[in-house]
Amino acid sequence: MPASCTGARLLVGALVRHGVDHVFCLPGESFLGVLDALRDAPGVRVVTCRHEGGAAMMAEADAKLTQRPGVAMVTRGPGAANAIAGLFVAKHDSTPLVLFVGLPPRALAGRGAFQEIELERLFAPLAKYVAVIDRAERVPELVARAFATASAGRPGPVVLGLPEDMQAESASVEGVEPMPVARAAPDPSAVAEIVARLERAERPLAIVGGGGWTAAATDALVEFASMWAIPVASAFRRQDFLDNTHACYAGHLGLALDPKLAERVKSADLVLALGTRLGEVTTSRYTLLDAPDPRQTLIHLHADAEELGRVYRTALAVVASSGPALAALAAVRPRRKPVRRAWLHEAHADYLAHSTPGPERAMLDLAHVVAGLNKVLPADAIVTNGAGNYAAWVNRYCRYRSFGSQLAPTSGSMGYGLPAAIAAKLRAPERVVVAWAGDGCFQISQQELATAAQEGAAVILLVVNNSSYGTIRMHQEKIFPGRIVATELVNPDFVALARAYGLYAERVEETRGFPAAFVRARASGGPALIELKTAIEAISPSQTLSTLRGAKRRGRRAAL
Fold it and tell me: Roughly what angle, to the nearest 10 degrees, separates helices 188-200 and 322-330?
């Protein structure tokens, strides 16, 4: 008979059993029992965050790097509500995450007790599974289920509630070993049909994305694409699934899409979608492939059967996880050498041209700043960003060299870059971690600078300051040119703010000043911030405010 333990200690024991070594939290009195048990947990680092959204985003980023469920803990009511931002990222990015929420004592449930919240109703649209652990004896069972559910099929977030008194309740129960994660392999007949169609195709194109990828899957992708001479385009913000300098890499199906890549997708006679849901951004609002009937022959492989046929009618739909699918495809050799080298060469050449900056356009040109970083960052450097127009420069000009080098939300969540960078640096302190944020994006999570300082996470944060919510300003200028409402920002002194948190910080206003500033930031040995002062006129890599307004005026004249 196992010794009697409290629910809190059973929970922490289950976390250790499942390999958890980082817990991101904002402490609350509703889970003090668990915090006390974590104090004695071997090898578990408890990271104290400044906002529950930041804690959940850190857990999500950590999961992306480890391919294991990230763990966050928050208190009831407002704490749970604040964590939704991170769960939203995990759902849309198909990332396994387990969120633990402290709750009022069980006897008070349903009475509208202080900060009481109905977890099932709050999180049902976002989480794969929501449950309240109502008895201590069920802790090992439900934790094992949570971890298995978060990782199975299309990965995603799971939420478990922890009533205060359950944490103090004692039970004698055996621990539950981690459940193996089921990975769907493609049927041999499906592999044979894919191969037959590839052999007949003249202009095939692969699109890779989704969750559940591993370094082994990317290795198999390299072998498969090289063997079959297939250009590979990455889905939105999945640019690290293939070394961007590889001859098969065709570019990024994201915002501010390269027109040549868009035309390449449209003119392909076969599209092989591997792991990606083929969402709105990846398909340019469902225009690169016509919905519901694409002109191209579409073969769609995804771990979740419900994603197949959701938007597009496919020539072949295959339920398969990306790793087993690519391993099976890479094991089949073409019967004859593919004769589409020109198609492949042009795709990569177009990508290189699109991701190479032209002449400098401003005192501080973000294109040249990003391109300069490509020359000095090691291949395994991790680059993070949140949402905003500044990210268009990052996603266009940054060349990701290895799997796990990009942390960016496909959900378009502001405030993600800094929390993600902190989690990355704590997970891989030997790697260089660079976080990008706009001035508006940064101020969503700027309080996590305190977390970076406290934890000694030596991230380098680049804050692009154009005194505006740039993305919204761009759309505002397109639709209502010159009529500015709610998009201008009066910002603090970001350098002084960072220094107040104990960071190294400086401001750069010219492109030529950035390389030396970056060297100084790295040499500081701790977290650092570089403010990049840019002009709002340069609203995107390919447009200015003046050209946007001019295009609108020309459109009005044409309508008349």
Answer: 60
The dihedral sign for the CA sequence 411, 415, 419, 425: positive
Mean residue pLDDT across the chain: 94
Q: Is 406 exposed, middle or buried (0-12, 13-18, 19+ CB in 10 A)?
A: buried
Determine the 3-state secondary structure of 84 from DSSP. helix
Beta bridge partners of 533: 465
Tens of pLDDT, residues 146-185: 999 999 999 999 999 999 999 999 999 989 999 998 889 9
Give 474-499 as a DSSP string: HHHHHHSTT---S-B-----HHHHHH
d(CA 367, CA 359): 10
The per-residue pLDDT for range 214-261, each reduced to its tens digit, is 999 999 999 999 999 999 999 999 999 999 999 999 999 999 899 999
Reported as type and span, the H/E element at residue 470 is: helix 470-479
Neighbours of 332 (CB within 10 A): 16
- Mind listing the domains of the chain with CATH numbers? 5-171 (3.40.50.970), 188-353 (3.40.50.1220), 356-548 (3.40.50.970)
User: Which residue, 234, 466, 480, 262, is CA-closest to 365?
Assistant: 466
